[in-house]
Amino acid sequence: MRSALVCGAGGFIGAHLVKRLKKEGFWVRGVDLKFPPFSETQADDFLQGDLREMGVCQRAVDRRFDEVWQLAADMGGAGYIFTGENDAEVMHNSAQINLNVLEACRQRFIKRIFYSSSACVYPEYNQLEPDSPNLEESTVYPAAPDSEYGWEKLFSERMYLAYRRNHGMEVRVARYHNVFGPEGAWNDGKEKAPAAICRKVAEAPDGGEIEIWGDGLQTRSFLFIDECLEGSTRLMRSDWTGPVNIGSDEMVSINQLAEFTMQIAGKRLSINNIPGPLGVRGRNSDNRLIAEKLAWSPSQPVSKGLEKTYAWIEAQVNAGRPA
Predict the structure, then answer these.
(1) What is the C-alpha to C-alpha distance for residues 300 and 296, in angstroms, rounded to an integer?
(2) 3-state DSSP call for residue 33?
(3) Annotated catalytic residue: which of 80, 115, 122, 149?
(4) CB count in 10 Å sphere of residue 268
(5) Domains (range + CATH), the chain
(6) C-alpha angle 218-223-224 in degrees, rounded to nearest 5
(7) Which is the most buried residue in 58, 63, 220, 316, by most CB within 10 A?
(8) Is the pTM of this model over 0.70?
């Protein structure tokens, strides 16, 4: 039986990845500070521990695995990443995790390891206009990420590639673009735009209003979790290292995302644009390289993923309301 280790298995993407690997017939060990908050883990073995501690990493990597997936990171949405209040923790925690996981895998002669990087590695100067961002993979240099989160991700990319060169490890590097879906953070301060907007719409009475940070004209592309996992597993089992964008190339404004969500909910709401942390002005996945190398790219429209995500978040909101 093939075996896999999922670091960050208590997180949104990690928990979904465990489910997929189990369906594929893997024996799966998960490791994280916490268990998945919204459903029981499907991992065969789950180590609850802090990957910032080398001893925990060595206990997690106590055998050979066919695949190691390194998704663990200190992260969140704009309200967590772009305020500046969490920069030191974000950089320290994530860098320490990556240093430990890589070295533990090297010590156990693990060959194949996947690293989830981020679109936040791309230079801010290429994302100043909402309608014309340039996020082709080769444009990451000269480096100028818009956040310390992005700088740490870029450093860690280089570390994984260095371990590949110096230690013969088969690393795979993906740059994720705004992954969303059911069972993700939605009300803890670390939620991203799709979940935050779904929550606001679900909580608002018909005819009311919701708040959107900035003028709402800032653009993003959003990738549904199922397509994220499809692209990730294709990359992991290919003979290509990356780095590569894994994201949708359907660019929408935040105001448009809110309008889509209102349509799904069947509500008429007004938008109140208020000051708030924003990140870059425009961001969209460039999918030419993944189509060339893997003969695949995401195709599901954001509205389809929003339907599933809204239904799940609406149920969470309603479950918390008094009868």
Answers:
(1) 12
(2) coil
(3) 149
(4) 10
(5) 3-179+225-246 (3.40.50.720), 181-221+250-285+301-319 (3.90.25.10)
(6) 135
(7) 220
(8) yes
